[in-house]
Amino acid sequence: MEEPRGIKTHEFESLCTLVNTVFRSGGVGHMERQYPLLFAPANFDHLLVMVDDGVVVSHVGTLTREISVMGLRIPVISIGAVATYEAYRGRGLATQLMETAIFKAVDQDVILMLISGGRGLYTRLGAKRIGQYVLYNIQRNRLPANKADIGRAEAADIDEMMRLYGAESSHYVRSISDLRTAIDAGWICDREGETIVIREGGQIGAYAGIQIYRSDRGGGIQKVRLTEIAGSRSLLLRSLSALCDRYGVEHLEVLTTRSDLELARLAGTRGVSSRPQGFTGTALVLQPARLLSIFEHYIKSVLPNTIEWDISEESVIFHYDGQTHSIARDELGALIFGVISPEKDPLMGLPAGPLRMALESIFPQQLPWYGFNFV
């Protein structure tokens, strides 16, 4: 068995056989086509594998990008397509690959790891469920019957879509090539999908990456979910009845961030039901001091006094206005980006006082929803 390393070009077919055997045995496509950003040749060094006698037997896929939160950039590494042949399970191969991924990420100054899963392999390393989002279930009878100019996104639309997405308060930092590649894949997060642009006065005012959930019998559409949105929420809402017609459904789901106050207000005027939703995977803060330092200027601009922190192997200790409190180091992500019940909220463990008030005034921040960046 070879040591963990990036995949070699001649081993790619063996890797595809592994991930498709584990994840696509039911015949729902090919992983390498559905996740072209992850499986791109330029990313081969970051597809970490264990190879036995020339065969790829275990894999942890990594993809490094940046997110923007209030204009502050944070390097993140996404983890996906984690697979091991059944005959090789129980030997710690995936654990070795995850540890290698963490080591390489820190060496590249990556701060946050986002993992598309929540099994023990990840939680044993300290990964937690974090993030605050909202899922709207919108019935057609609550939608305005306005006509809308909608159509499938084309290559000529990419520049304007980039502008709309970049204006979101929290988002991934994408290249035009990344967005075009993801759209062309026709696969959004973990489902078949398509991307729709919405025009008003001939100009694109919003877009939506839409997941299509098909029935196991006959392949008919059961439901659709807008899982990445950008642009005018009012225009988006006015287009939903036309989207119902497009897919032949009587309701749609819209997944957005908790900070999306405009959509919350518009949905509220129509009595639309919603429920909170956390990040579907888990996250691991790789460099706590670096993450806090990114927000330092913002924190100083908000608080009247200086908040300080000390970080050890086990905890993060905050000091403010005569009050001190510590949280476990692996709870820092939950503090900064928030959680959804029943996950533990570190803020709830703080006694009343100036420190708690200070932390509540600066956190949580909005973790972007990954949408097209899911791997």
What does this structure look like?
This protein is 28% helix and 33% strand. The protein is built from twelve helices and 18 strands. The strands form three sheets. Strands 6, 7, 9, 10, 11, 12, 13 and 14 form an eight-stranded mixed β-sheet that branches. Strands 1, 2, 3, 4, 5, 8 and 15 form a seven-stranded mixed β-sheet that branches. Strands 16-17-18 form a three-stranded antiparallel β-sheet. The chain has 375 residues and is α+β, with helices and mostly antiparallel strands. The two termini are 26 Å apart. The radius of gyration is 22 Å and the shape is globular.
Q: What does the main sheet amount to?
A: 8 strands, mixed
User: Average pLDDT value?
Assistant: 96
Radius of gyration: 22 Å
- Note the run of SSEs as H and E: EHHEEEHEHEEHEHEEEEHEHEEHHEEEHH
Shape annotation? globular
- Unreliable stretches (pLDDT < 50, length at least 5) are none
Strand content: 25-35%
Distance between the termini: 26 Å
Structural class: alpha+beta
Tell me the helix content. 25-40%
Number of beta strands: 18
Number of helices: 12
